[in-house]
Design a protein that fits this description.
By secondary structure, the protein is an alpha+beta fold. It has 16 helices and 19 strands.
Length: about 500
């Protein structure tokens, strides 16, 4: 998940739930009714069975927890915030909500970019960020057992002394929780070689909508007893249950890589380099792309030594699975392919300082675009589509066409090795016409992803921002299966109503 700050549009200028074409409309999916339309449910009985002061009804605090980092996503008026400290808090909250048909919005660190954690009217915000213990690190089984509020970086740091690694490496590694990573099946910079979150989830403990507790997955390295229910929860965005404990698989510490950088005057040449390099049978440990706009914003943000004036930069790493000879061969091949595709400059380095500098530059792109946005109108809409690698050159051609047609500034970065692109639309939140153009550009990007054989989201999730587009990506039978699963796990529809599955046809 790329860490970009999505700026909220001031009241009165952002399209609301009925204005924005991609926003949730009131008719899309009904919010589960309260016990009475006129009398709010008394929450005192719930507060009495929760941890001390776990239930918060202060309106300012609730408002601060009512949205993630998405724009163009509606925000309702939740009833209360529950800061869960243990499994019992989660169970009691869901039992109460199920009984009284109260909507519940599971939350973590609120770093999401699709509105999945946004509040809805009358909802209980169930925040599990405070459940942040690393329960166990098992060096024999090479697993870690964690609560959902553990930060991705905290687990990585804790594993160093054991010589182990947890590979999923979203751009939000320092601020996103493992529970949130599970909810969106987060990927990141290293997933081209090491895979995404679901590839490392061995077992989950989950509280279902009625408050019942279950454990899904397997206790051992192998196991095929029953259906793979754990996979249903990975990427389900809090619509099926609330994860309260995660067992992840680990690998030996990842070897230090060699790093290569290639610069291009035409981003389509960079795309063709990606296609040819990934067709060669090589598996880099990282392959990232930044367009010229992103490079310029990074250079304005900090001194990372990036060259000026390039239309695109590819950042590649190979660790050769610990073999320096193999890593060198991989990057030598990259250098040859990039030069053959018109690269103006290719640099290969085995200096760890160079590697750290380039990675720091790549990770800074969110902050760099945030700085630019704040100085030029304050609007930044972070997008997330994933495409077949063979479609990347055409994708960049269409991104330029979209920028020209809608008169918006687009900055594109992405996990080039697996085709996961992040086009960022920058706009002026004080100008209604600029806001409208940005929203139209978003729609065009979504359509382009599907037209090129891709998907509407590679790692940020559907949330509320893309729920209408999910209905376009899934065929009618797939939609029916999704809804049948939702009904089985959450018969009263209280979990994340109107999110993710909200626009699927019955």
């Amino acid at each position: 998940m790329t860490t970009h700050q999505a700026h909220a549009v001031p009241s009165g200028t952002v399209p609301n739930a009925t204005d924005a074409p991609n926003a949730l409309n009131a008719t899309d999916v009904p919010t589960p009714p309260l016990t009475s339309a006129d009398v709010a449910v008394d929450l005192a009985p719930l507060a009495a069975v929760l941890s001390d002061r776990a239930l918060v009804d202060d309106l300012d605090v609730i408002a601060a927890h009512s949205k993630d980092r998405a724009v163009f996503a509606p925000i309702g008026a939740p009833r209360a915030l529950i800061r869960a400290r243990n499994v019992s808090d989660v169970q009691e909250t869901l039992r109460f909500a199920h009984e009284h048909r109260l909507p519940v919005i599971p939350q973590g660190a609120l770093t999401g970019l699709s509105g999945g954690a946004n509040g809805v009217d009358g909802a209980l915000l169930l925040n599990v960020a405070g459940m942040d213990r690393i329960v166990d690190i098992d060096t024999v089984e090479q697993t870690a057992t964690v609560e959902p509020g553990v930060l991705n970086r905290a687990l990585k740091d804790a594993l160093v002394e054991h010589g182990l690694s947890y590979p999923p490496d979203p751009g939000s590694v320092d601020i996103s929780t493992l529970g949130g990573n599970v909810a969106t099946n987060a990927g990141g910079l290293c997933c081209v070689k090491y895979g995404v979150t679901k590839d490392y989830v061995r077992r989950l403990t989950v509280v279902l909508a009625d408050g019942s507790l279950t454990t899904v997955g397997r206790p051992t390295a192998k196991g095929v007893a029953g259906l793979d229910l754990a996979s249903l929860f990975v990427g389900s965005e809090g619509t099926l249950g609330v994860v309260v404990e995660i067992v992840v698989e680990l690998i030996p510490a990842i070897p230090d890589p060699l790093t290569g950088v290639a610069l291009f005057d035409d981003i389509r040449d960079a795309a063709r380099t990606i296609t040819e390099f990934m067709s060669s049978g090589v598996t880099p440990s990282m392959l990232e792309i930044l367009d010229g706009t992103s490079i310029a914003c990074i250079n304005d943000y900090g001194d990372f030594g990036l060259p000026e004036g390039a239309a695109a930069m590819l950042l590649v790493q190979s660790n050769g699975d610990g073999s320096l000879e193999r890593a060198t061969a991989d990057l030598t091949l990259f250098e040859r392919i990039a030069a053959g595709q018109g690269a103006t400059e290719v640099t290969i380095s085995d200096d760890p300082d160079d590697s750290e500098m380039f990675i720091a530059a790549r990770r800074s792109v969110g902050h760099a675009l945030e700085k630019y946005a704040m100085a030029h109108g304050g609007g930044e809409l972070v997008d997330d589509v994933c495409l077949p690698r063979k479609s990347l050159a055409e994708f960049f051609t269409r991104m330029q066409a979209i920028a020209d047609e809608h008169d918006v500034m687009l900055a594109v970065v992405g996990h080039a090795g697996d085709g996961n692109m992040h086009p960022n639309v920058l706009f002026d939140v004080q100008d209604p016409a600029s806001v409208a153009r940005a929203n139209a550009a978003f729609e065009a990007i979504m359509a382009t992803g599907l037209e090129l054989g891709g998907t509407i989201t590679g790692e940020h999730g559907v949330g509320v921002l893309k729920q209408r587009w999910l209905a376009q990506e899934l065929d009618p039978v797939a939609q029916r299966l999704h809804l049948a699963i939702k009904r089985e796990f959450d018969s009263r529809g209280i979990l994340s109503p109107g999110k993710m599955l909200g626009a699927l046809a019955e």
